[in-house]
Design a protein that fits this description.
2 copies of one chain form a homodimer. Chain A is of the alpha/beta class. Chain A has 2 domains: about 90 residues, 60s Ribosomal Protein L30, Chain: A (2-Layer Sandwich), CATH 3.30.1330.30; about 140 residues, 3-Layer(aba) Sandwich (Alpha/beta knot). Chain A contains 10 helices and 11 strands. In chain A, the strands form 2 sheets. In chain A, strands 8-7-6-10-9-11 form a 6-stranded parallel sheet. The first copy, chain A, has a 5-stranded mixed sheet with strand order 1-4-3-5-2. In chain A, helix 5 links the parallel strand 6 and strand 7. The longest helix of chain A is centred in the C-terminal third of the chain and has 16 residues. Chain A starts with a strand and ends with a helix. At the A-B interface, helix 5, helix 7 and helix 10 of A face helix 5, helix 7 and helix 10 of B.
Chain lengths: ~240, ~240
């Protein structure tokens, strides 16, 4: 069946996945583009259905598939120049629990592109468990895109600050902050949780006081701070490297 | 004198600084926001004039100042919620010359936010000299913003690939590429040029063949690459750290 109208109820429902409310209501998120959809399928995420633009129908898919006309398809997509294939994917639910290995806590990271880029780097650097307090939604189209399939492989645990800190109570927290010791001479414990704060205001007082160590990236006199995703990347790799 | 109309020739000229063509014609670029303007003034960059929205006129500035009504001011600015102060700043001209210290070559970095974030990190990590081949313009509003005043302190040298490689011929080039050796066990020479390529396609063949060494950031099986600004940040800091 081919749906042409962007006013079709199913199309409207899929278009609502661009917003947090729609994702919560449907329990699903949107993955766009051929490469991302393929990696999503291979990752084992639960695909609700593929969404294919009519000019792409010739290709064979062994999954439930919805075919849309060009206008309806572009109503569903967030990308400016959609590739003609997308997927509705079930939102994974990870209950808050203690980390098995070294992990990451994001405390108020507000920019979805930063959240996505941090997830991407975390998976690359071997941190599969991420805890999120008051952050941009990692399943927004912008964050999913910036994560480059990282969100398919990460355990993204979200919760209130108190609950998250309770789940992390058995692990030394390492806070990233300007007042810390130089991370390049710091020797981390075997298992730790690296804590990254908000782009402008840094870590919350609660996380700062719960931390057992504080580290900084040394910077020249003309710089006050680094981009949150850049500094998270430097710290994630440096702390692993020091332990390796 | 207060200018109200966005059709005023001076306002139109300032608005043209948002585009590369306008910046080239005027030999100037735009700096927006109180903090950025203050840092620009302190950096010693040559300010053509301050541009102030009429509700901000009470403040005292000892520089040539143009006062604009709200509508004309927002026509000039690129930011969605402008703060009421901006500056027209003379484009710095850095002739292509050999680097004095370890430096960075950007080869085809296309996203202005990545160019800006890399400049920001470079200044923080102590690389003041950057060479740019076929990159997004570092003086676009988006790049200036992402650099967080980094563009005021960097020597940004732009040129054709051949000319740039000639200027760098006395310095060992270190290429960032997936096929390289692990940067965390690599010992760099005392003075080097780190080469960062395009977000999708990496370094050009010319730069790859001119490089004396190639380094990579090790990554888990689920990751093909990192964000260009993140990987540049990790490499810039790691190479300095290895030498320190």
């Amino acid at each position: 069946m081919l749906i042409l109208s962007r006013n079709n109820p199913t199309v409207k429902q899929l278009a609502s996945l661009k917003e947090k409310k729609g994702r919560r209501t449907c329990g699903a998120f949107l993955v766009e583009g051929e490469k991302m959809v393929r990696e999503c399928v291979l990752s084992g995420m639960e695909i609700v259905r593929l969404i294919v633009r009519e000019d792409r129908v010739g290709e064979t898919y062994s999954l439930p598939t919805l075919v849309l006309g060009a206008d309806a398809f572009s109503a569903v997509c967030d990308e400016k120049t959609p590739q003609g294939i997308a997927a509705e994917v079930k939102l994974p639910v990870y209950p808050l629990e203690e980390p098995k290995k070294s992990c990451i806590l994001l405390d108020g990271v507000a920019d979805p592109a930063n959240v996505g880029a941090i997830v991407r780097t975390a998976i690359a650097a071997g941190y599969e468990e991420l805890y999120l307090i008051d952050c941009a939604d990692p399943f927004s189209p912008k964050s999913v895109r910036a994560s480059m399939s990282g969100v398919f492989f990460a355990r993204l645990m979200r919760g209130e600050r108190k609950e998250v800190l309770k789940a992390l109570s058995g692990v030394p927290l390492i806070a990233a902050d300007m007042d810390g010791e130089n991370v390049f001479s710091f020797v981390p414990p075997e298992k730790f949780c690296l804590c990254i704060g908000n782009e402008g205001s840094g870590l919350s007082e609660e996380v700062k006081s719960a931390a057992s160590k504080t580290v900084k990236i040394p910077m020249g006199e003309h710089t006050e701070s680094l981009n949150a995703a850049v500094s998270a990347g430097i710290l994630m790799y440096e702390l692993k490297n020091q332990r390796g």
